[in-house]
What we know:
Chain A is of the alpha/beta class. Helix content of chain A is 37%, strand content 14%. The longest helix of chain A has 37 residues, at 260-296. Chain B has a six-stranded antiparallel beta sheet, with helices on one face.
Amino acid sequence: MQRVHASNIGDPIYLNNAATSWPKAPGVPEAVAAWLAQPPHDAARSGSITPADPAADCRRLLARLLGDVDPCRIALTHSATESLNLAILGVGLHDGARVVTTCMEHNSVLRPLAHIARTTGVEVRIVGASQDGVVDAEDFAQALRPSADLVVVNHASNVTGTVQDVGLLFALAHDVGALTLLDASQSAGNVPVIPAAMGADMVAINGHKSLHGPPGVGALYVREGLDLQQWMVGGTGVRSSLRLHPAEMPIRLEAGTPNGAGLAGWAVALRWHAREGHAHVQRKAALTATLRRALHDLPEVRVYGGHAADDRVGIVSVNLRGVQPEDLGFALEAGFRITCRTGLHCAPLAHEAIGSAPDGTVRLSLSSFTRPEEVDAAVSALRRLSARMAA
Amino acid sequence: MRIVETRKVEDCFDGSAVYAYRFDTPWTEREIRALGALGKLEFFPDFPRPLFRLLGEGGWQMKGVLGEDVCKAIYPRAGRESIRQRFEQEYSDPS
């Protein structure tokens, strides 16, 4: 008799939150749907007198998240990638300028930098990291000499969950007069991101990861006194009589129709985070620590990041001895309905540092809504796969 | 079994050749066991969803799940097109 498997083996388990989180914060899907279900109202553009303004709400809530910065210094974008591009292409790097960054960066930093290096005379120095993904401050200081114009640092690695000592690295950068740009894509919502305390001149954020908003929303904080060059200009819905794009923040960096539905959802998520985010992150950190310890105990499993990985980020990257990451990821997804991410995670240079090049890792990433039984199921699955597949 | 839909899938690596196939019927245990003629077959019938992986000659591989009508094939750089055509030909005949 043919064996026919039962496809209903319980709910799928989503451990790919570092790519994009799911589920979203309570009320987010409803807020997005409600925005789309009604005629849009925009006081500036339509003569509406509605007091609702999701963009202003997001700016205000983000300003609080960043340590009570001026909301007007926050430009709303469509992604952290857009924010990083606005910053990198906007600081006015000239022929001969030097940029210092790290091997732990995501392609949303590496590719804009490679682009300007190729199209201009800008020199880009990439500082390496330890096997745990930690950037050495002395190496960093050396790379800053004789001068640097811009420094870009990934706050929390999307490969290992390693959190860099940004305060120290940015202090070194300021010593040589460099501007500092923080990629907070994986850290915002998990660990404090306070530009004033960290010495960050600019901070790039997305809405759809640990802030539990919808995709298609992001932000760029730019400190007072720093005017980025505008390279994307156009309609703003306000001051249309001006021939040139307005120069003041935040619309200086905002062109085109905003993602109203996304911002409506993000505002709900940011309010939820302000109320309950801290407690949820603490719970996630405890679960991540449990997962990391359990996987450390499996002899065939290699866990990356070591003690430098910050459990609040919720990322555990692994490999199984003798098994390609893609094969392990397939087995988890197809065999156990556990969704994770395999490969390079858009951070190709990080793998050279941590020893997982050229094939990358299998990344399990938790969210504030991951349940203990889901972590138990992942450990159980990896234990079985370790016994059956490891070389 | 016959392929009814083919889609090229991108992954992390430039130049890789990954294809997803949909078949006209789901994979049965008999069909999976028959794959052994094409290479080294690994079958995990005791997993919650029984999965299989075929390691074919020349370094290509194919993966799927018992009871599902899809599979994924990964072809190596060397001889990619001829291997892919052979596999697709194998599952093109409605008989």
